[in-house]
Design a protein that fits this description.
With 177 residues, this protein is an alpha+beta fold. It has two domains: 144 residues, Beta Polymerase, domain 2 (2-Layer Sandwich), CATH 3.30.460; 30 residues, no CATH class. It is globular.
Length: 177
């Protein structure tokens, strides 16, 4: 089994065992849906709660690098966290499903057999994959960005002169992104 397939199999089986709904997103989903993108990591969107961080780390075991405190903190902030399968150094980015849009993505995801080992995984639909979203004119992938509350709040907050990017201007104290 290839390293990406092995990692994907282990993480999806672990999440399923903990009854944490998830689906594959990012460049792996995009490649599966027909727009090839090279990648060395796995992006998952999962309906994981902060209280499940310790159970997740325990279920993964010592073969994985995972910090339960950092995972819990990231989930509470609505940000992605990383897991690393030490055996083959494959990184998994997990984006917490934190709103109704993510819940609808979870409902739309379909089971696809992935990789040379034909591992059954729930995968983002073509409409939810990064290539479809970026073609609509949105900046980046909604599924990868996980609609991070902090990012949305930062965009809506007034600019601070020291943090203003070159080429941006303000109108009534707000950044134009």
């Amino acid at each position: 089994m290839d390293s990406l397939g092995e990692t994907l199999s282990l993480i999806t089986t672990t999440l399923e065992g903990l009854r944490i709904p998830d689906f594959v997103g990012g460049s792996v989903a995009s490649s599966i849906r027909g727009v090839w993108r090279t990648t060395l990591d796995v992006d998952l969107i999962a309906s994981v709660g902060a209280q499940q961080a310790t159970a997740l780390v325990g279920a993964l075991g010592p073969e994985w690098y995972a910090d339960p405190a950092e995972i819990q903190r990231s989930i509470e902030l609505g940000r992605a966290f990383n897991l690393i399968y030490i055996k083959n150094a494959t990184k998994v980015d997990i984006f917490p499903a934190c709103d109704e849009f993510h819940a609808s993505q979870l409902r739309r995801a379909t089971v696809v057999r992935v990789g040379s080992a034909q591992i059954p995984c729930r995968v983002a639909t073509a409409e939810d994959s990064p290539s479809a979203i970026s073609s609509t004119g949105l900046r980046g992938s909604v599924s990868q960005a996980c609609l991070r509350r902090s990012k949305l709040l930062r965009r809506a907050s007034p600019c601070r002169p020291s943090r203003r990017r070159r080429g941006t201007s303000t109108s009534r104290g707000r950044c134009r992104w």
